[in-house]
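Ticket 4471: requesting a sanity check on a complex prediction with SN-glycerol-3-phosphate. Repro inputs:
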Amino acid sequence: MKFFVDTGDLDEIAKLNETGMLDGVTTNPSLIKKSGKEFIPLIKDICGIVRGPVSAEVAATDYETMIKEGRKLADIASNIAVKVPLTPAGLRVCKELSDDDVMVNVTLCFSANQALLAAKAGATFISPFIGRLDDIGLDGMELIGDIAQIYDNYGYDTQILAASIRHCAHVYMSAKVGADVATIPPKIIWQLFQHPLTDKGLDAFVADWAATGQSIL
Ligand code: G3P
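Returned structure tokens:
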């Protein structure tokens, strides 16, 4: 499973990139607002750090403006994935950019039918929002599983990008039901490394090694 980080925080991206676990980055207008940075220079900086796909979202909702914004964003770097909303205009932009070999991430997906439409439009990634479905009493994980089955039935190449991840269990559960990618907030990626028995075991190994008085180097 690929791990993307869902953030506009450049320092966090650089730190996570050093772990060797980071396969890409996703941003959205809310994360850009939170970063307090200028959008285009920030996206350029992110593309300078991370080699994998970097999602940059269009701001307009009408086809004519969205396609211009999408082409401008795609020109920033070869690893840009243009993010478009799951609307008729957004999917029209998706089809056009995909036909020109630009990566497209279709966002704000909340149903299997929407995911089917995105695949037909040639999306590189479909982003079902797990957490926001759970928030309203629905089952985000069931949606990921349904999309995986449908894409498998028809051999669609569109990658399932589990988004709106709120806790560690969302990550392994998405992997179990067939998501190709999880986009995860930085704090949760760091939590994935942690287990109290790892800390306890390491403390004991360090203490016992010190008691031997030996040195490897
Ligand atoms: O980037 C899209 C998605 O991951 C947003 O998550 O937490 O705002 O629902 P959230």
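Notes from triage: The chain has one domain: 2-190. Leaving this open until the requester confirms.
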